[in-house]
Amino acid sequence: MIDFLRGSVAHLENEYVVLDVQGVGYRVFCPNPYAFAKTEGPVVIYIHHHVREDAILLFGFATREEQQLFRKLIDVSGIGPRVALGILGGGTPAHVVTAIYQENITFLTKLPGIGKKTAQRMILDLKDKLDGIGSLGMVTGLFAEPVVEEGEGSYWGEAREALKALGYTDAELDKVWSRMKKDAKPDESADILMKRALQLLFAG
């Protein structure tokens, strides 16, 4: 089974990245393919190799933590790989794990594809199985009232810092935020805002 791939980004779409590994293009479905848009040189994508009767699919992640949480999520009845990808696209491992520990149904049901029954099943099945995943999110006040205004502690502020770490400049981020701000919703997580921003940045 494939555990990780190292190569260069050959192509990006909304749902997947094509990774060129020594001349072979691997289509890898990711929570946020555009996170790899600014990467220069070889990248490492941690893989979940999913085999079913009619397809062999690769799901990829920027960190081991995302890979581990994905594998826990797909063990929950009613959560398939696509829904698990949506969960990781809508919240960081820290946010998702903390919500499960805190039995925060409100947060979980805001994630794509998750209704109340599935959220309850996630808590029941995973609450005692997530040690070591998302530990950075175990902080007081993680689920304070979300805000999308720019500034320290805001969801956009968190997304902005992550984008700066990818190499984007303040000028680029100010420009893209001015385009996004009018449509931003209070319940959009930093990951959702980051994904929208990357799509706009990648499109120019």
Commentary on this structure:
The chain contains 8 helices and 5 strands, in the order E-E-E-E-E-H-H-H-H-H-H-H-H. It has 3 domains: 4-61, Nucleic acid-binding proteins (OB fold (Dihydrolipoamide Acetyltransferase, E2P)); 65-137, 5' to 3' exonuclease, C-terminal subdomain (DNA polymerase, domain 1), CATH 1.10.150; 155-203. It has 204 residues and is an alpha+beta fold. The model is unreliable at 136-149 (pLDDT under 50). The termini are far apart. Helix content is 39%, strand content 19%. The chain has a 5-stranded mixed barrel with strand order 1-2-3-5-4.
Which architecture of the largest domain does the CATH hierarchy give at level 2?
Orthogonal Bundle
Quote the beta fraction: 15-25%
The CATH homology group name of the largest domain: 5' to 3' exonuclease, C-terminal subdomain
Distance between the termini: 37 Å
How many discrete structural domains?
3
Helix content: 25-40%
Low-confidence stretches: 136-149
Count of individual beta strands: 5
* Strand order in space, largest sheet: 1-2-3-5-4
- The name CATH uses for the topology of the largest domain is DNA polymerase, domain 1
GO biological process, one term: DNA recombination
Main location: cytoplasm
InterPro entries: DNA_helicase_Holl-junc_RuvA_I (IPR013849), Hlx-hairpin-Hlx_DNA-bd_motif (IPR003583), NA-bd_OB-fold (IPR012340), RuvA (IPR000085), RuvA_2-like (IPR010994), RuvA_C (IPR011114), RuvA_C_sf (IPR036267)
Protein name: Holliday junction branch migration complex subunit RuvA
